[in-house]
Each structure stands twice: as structure tokens, then as C-alpha cells.
């Protein structure tokens, strides 16, 4: 999209960044000497970030990880016990009370 126009016909969202890159190159380089293009690295980086959002994505992932870590450290009063988790909410009782027959295909170990 070097032309600067998006699919909708207007300027693309990154066109202002591209103009900054071009202005920097025009100001700091010439046909004979391109040693000044190192000065354009920050504006070029901004342009690439506008295109690809890699820094934004990395920040989002870091924030999500920090949020999950903080949530994991919060003690819940209504947290299920290990037995509740093992039973997956199935009603307590013996196999006979649940009207089930023990077979070799179904697990039938008593759960605490």
C-alpha cells in the first residue's frame, strides 16, 4: 500500500506513518550517501508497528498473563473441593443408589 489508499478508497490508517518515513529518507539520505537512513529507524519502526501491531500484541499478551496470574492468586470462598472436581458434579451415592451396574467398561471406583 505504498500508494497510501486503502480498500475503501481513502487513505490507509498507516499512510501518515509512511509519509513520515519518506520525509525522513528524503531529508537524511541522497543518491550518493545513504548513511543517514539510520536516523529513520524510529519512524520506520512506528510504520511497521502500525502495519503489523506486533508490540501491541505482545503488550496485550503480557497484560492477559498478568491478569490470569493475579486471578489465580485470589482465594475463592466458593471454590469447589477436589472431590467435587473429581465427581464433576455427579450426585453422591453408591452405584446401586444411582441405579448403575459396575462393568469393566465404566469406572466404578469409590470416590471420596
UniProtKB/TrEMBL annotation:
Compartment annotation: Mitochondrion inner membrane; Mitochondrion intermembrane space
Disulfide bonds: 14-50, 24-40
Membrane-topology annotation of the record: Peripheral membrane protein
GO biological process, one term: mitochondrial respiratory chain complex I assembly
Any GO CC annotation of this UniProt entry: mitochondrial inner membrane
Task of the protein: Accessory subunit of the mitochondrial membrane respiratory chain NADH dehydrogenase (Complex I), that is believed not to be involved in catalysis. Complex I functions in the transfer of electrons from NADH to the respiratory chain. The immediate electron acceptor for the enzyme is believed to be ubiquinone.
The protein's name in its UniProt record: NADH dehydrogenase [ubiquinone] iron-sulfur protein 5
Originating organism: Lojkania enalia
Amino acid at each position: 500500500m505504498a500508494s497510501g489508499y486503502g480498500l475503501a478508497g481513502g487513505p490507509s490508517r498507516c499512510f501518515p506513518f509512511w509519509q513520515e518515513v519518506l520525509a525522513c529518507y528524503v531529508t537524511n539520505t541522497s543518491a550518493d550517501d545513504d548513511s543517514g537512513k539510520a536516523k529513520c529507524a524510529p519512524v520506520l519502526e512506528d510504520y511497521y508497528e502500525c502495519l503489523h501491531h506486533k508490540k501491541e500484541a505482545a503488550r496485550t499478551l503480557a497484560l492477559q498473563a498478568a491478569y490470569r496470574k493475579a486471578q489465580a492468586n485470589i482465594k475463592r470462598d466458593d471454590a469447589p473441593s477436589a472431590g467435587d472436581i473429581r465427581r464433576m458434579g455427579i450426585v453422591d451415592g453408591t452405584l446401586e443408589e444411582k441405579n448403575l451396574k459396575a462393568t469393566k467398561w465404566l469406572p466404578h471406583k469409590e470416590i471420596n
